[in-house]
Design a protein that fits this description.
- It is a single chain.
- With about 400 residues, this protein is α/β, with parallel strands linked by helices.
- The chain is about 30% helix and about 30% strand.
- The chain is built from 11 helices and 19 strands.
- The chain has a 7-stranded mixed β-sheet with strand order 15-14-13-16-17-19-18, with helices on both faces. A 5-stranded mixed β-sheet has the order 1-3-4-5-2.
- It is globular.
Length: about 400
């Protein structure tokens, strides 16, 4: 059995944990019994209430405000069998949901493995180890993937603010097998390629799968604008489902090169054009040129990464939507999403409302959008419920 250092909480600070939350903050820890200076980043801990009752097993990073995360409610070995059981439980859900093996296999707290992300592209696995605690199990995670899936390649790709705060080394590394320059993705019956080493995050955004499917019923014979298109997951899919013309806007030349590759792959080259430019500037230019689109898709990056950015981010969402609505054809369809954790569904809808006033148009909500099923929401952790959106007319 693995040995665990005790980690005591202050009196009454166990209430969130008893209610099934998995996170512990540094100000909830009792420094008299367990000073944070006695721990190193990644230590396994047995979390205890002030009355010595065990609340679970987890790992700690004493240098962070979000100090500890729970791996198990029961005292058990945190070993290869533990990770195999959790990963296979996650696999069981995905195999019920998806006919083809392209999905987020492990979604961190949503799959009871805090700090771990694994995306599956058939026999290629891209993992993010976002915490010092989960990083200590790197070799075990690789071994589980090797024995359970016989992969062609395994990549560890860490980046972003969370990794920096945790002191996790950033970068992309092929830790097993051989990785082709571009890898295949199959989604909603459409084939794509993406670049997992140099592309954003793990190379593909599986969380938008269901939303990309929903918008397809609106695109036939329509002129479609895909803003922040990345590699064309929305736009190329729209062309493949009968859109008469699709324009993909992105500021990344490499992303737009993949839009063109994906258009060619799906034999819709004649229907797809690309526009390399900052999204706001592109929308202004299209308005000046009196362009109109029957369907506009807005899938921006997170404008609000911290709570303190809420006001400026809210204004950015408002400006983006007003610019888009000025080039939306009468009775057109607007599909908009936000992955900003601190920007709620209500705030997004209010930004759209304000934008509609500025653009002098009427809108109504047809559908509410959410992250796909391979990004399950932990009911006690609202932070796992981050993607929201609307289809409006």
């Amino acid at each position: 059995m693995t040995s665990f250092k005790p980690l005591y909480l202050k009196k009454h600070e166990e209430r969130r944990i008893v209610a099934e939350h998995l996170w512990i903050y540094s100000n909830e820890i009792d420094p008299k019994f367990t000073p944070l200076k006695n721990f190193t980043a990644g230590d396994l801990v047995e979390i205890k209430a002030y009355n010595h009752k065990t609340l679970g097993i987890g790992y700690i990073n004493p240098h962070n405000l979000l100090c500890a995360r729970i791996l198990s409610r029961e005292v058990c070995a945190i070993d290869q069998d533990f990770f195999r059981a959790r990963i296979m439980r996650a696999l069981s859900l995905r195999e019920r949901l998806f006919a083809s093996p392209y999905y987020r296999l492990v979604f961190s707290e949503g799959d009871f493995l805090p700090g771990l992300i694994i995306d599956r592209f058939r026999d290629i696995f891209i993992s993010q180890l976002n915490t010092a605690g989960i990083t200590r199990f790197k070799e075990i995670i690789i071994s589980v993937l090797q024995t359970q899936f016989a992969p062609r390649a395994i990549v560890i790709k860490n980046s972003g603010t969370a990794c920096a705060l945790e002191g996790v080394p950033q970068g992309a590394e092929v830790v097993y097998g051989s990785l082709p320059e571009l890898i295949a993705v199959e989604e909603n019956g459409i084939n794509f390629v993406c670049d997992v080493l140099h592309g954003q995050k793990t190379g593909w955004f599986f969380d938008q799968r269901a939303n990309r499917w929903r918008i397809l019923q609106y695109v036939k014979n329509q002129r479609v604008l895909d803003v922040f298109s990345y590699v064309g997951a929305f736009g190329v899919a729209a062309a493949a489902h009968g859109a008469k013309q699709v324009m993909c806007i992105d500021s990344s030349k490499s992303a737009l090169n993949l839009v063109r590759k994906n258009a060619e792959l799906n034999q819709v080259v004649s229907a797809v054009t690309t526009y390399e430019e900052d999204a706001m500037l592109a929308l202004k230019t299209l308005h000046e040129n009196k362009e109109l689109f029957e369907v506009i898709i807005l899938d921006p990056p997170a404008f609000i990464k911290k709570q303190k950015d809420l006001n400026s981010g809210r204004d950015a969402y408002w400006r983006l939507h007003e610019l888009a609505l000025k080039i939306l054809a009468p009775q057109g369809i607007l599909c908009t999403t936000s992955c900003s954790l601190h920007f709620s569904q209500d705030l997004l809808l209010d930004a759209v409302r304000r934008a509609a006033l500025g653009a002098k148009c009427d809108l109504r909500v047809l559908e509410q959008l959410h992250q796909a099923q391979d990004h399950p929401v932990h009911p006690a952790i609202p932070e796992t419920n981050y993607l929201k959106g609307f289809i409006l007319n």
